[in-house]
Amino acid sequence: MHPLDLSGSTALWMVMLSIGGAIIGSFVAALTIRWPEGRSVMLGRSSCDHCGHVLRARDLVPLLSWLVLSGRCRDCGGVIDRRHVTIEVAATAIGLVAGMVSPDLAGLAGAVFGWMLLALACLDLAALWLPDRLTVLLAVTGPVAGVFGLAPTLEDRLIGGVAGFLVLWSVGWAYRRLRGREGLGGGDPKLLAGIGLWLGWRLLPGVLLIGSALGLGVAIGLSAKGRAVGRDTPLPFGAFLAAAAYIMWVATTWVRLFAA
209: domain range? Predict the structure, then answer.
């Protein structure tokens, strides 16, 4: 099937993964807001952050509820945290793109990969935090995809996991020895290991290059706005790696379809 053929099964995959993305995005948004504050994501019903009213089912429809309510609470009129709709849109886009470039099991796997990366990126942006529970989940699911015969091979994935961890762990170790302080978060090597277990070792240089370029671009943008950005300014490098990893998955999958 040609990558630009949006009819038939391709359109169906795009719709299904988009809807799935919107639903998962709603969960990721709650995770991003509640988890760093020590609040449970799984327990308790959703409520307004302003007035505390328990939200009804009609208020929890991803994207649509926000549009109908114009981004405000139905009860008190308080502004709903924009992270909800932003993350839901991002998760929907991840599913849409995955279904378009690979309308099959590989596309579903790519969407799951993207949604996990989105959760990690959002937490890193919100709290400079890459929880072990999520990086381990990312790492475990990578080889599972390989067992089902999805590219790359299981061997490439395992090498990628080891290489991804060692590369960033070595950078962090060297910086600590030279500068006498931490220069890289402890979750970054684990994240790159998880990415390597999904993409294989051959794509890791591209992920690091794109991730570093994104980080440099953000630093330049902040500096241009008058923000003081120095060598010790903390930046969410994990978020940049996550974005780079999904970009690499989309690009390589797209190329593979054109070559088929």
Answer: 129-260
pLDDT tens profile 23-34: 999 999 999 999
> What is the C-alpha separation between 101 and 166, in angstroms, rounded?
31
Bridge partner list, 47: 54
**CA 22 to chain CA centroid, nearest Å:** 14
Paired tokens of 28: 């990721």
Q: Respond yes or no on whether the N-terminal peptide bond of residue 152 is cis (omega within 30° of 0).
A: yes
Distance of alpha carbon 60 from its chain centroid, rounded?
22
pLDDT by residue (tens digit) across 157-189?
999 999 999 999 999 999 899 888 888 889 999
| pTM flag (> 0.90) | yes
Q: Write the CA distances from 98 to 166, 201, 210, integer angstroms.
A: 29, 21, 19
Cβ contact 118:245 at 8 Å: no
**How many Cβ atoms from other residues are within 10 Å of residue 49's Cβ?**
12
For residue 186, tell me if it sits in a domain: yes
* Same domain membership, residue 78 and residue 168: no
- Separation CA 89–CA 21 (nearest Å): 8
Predicted confidence (pLDDT) per residue in 45-88, tens digit: 788 888 888 888 999 999 999 999 999 999 899 999 999 999 99
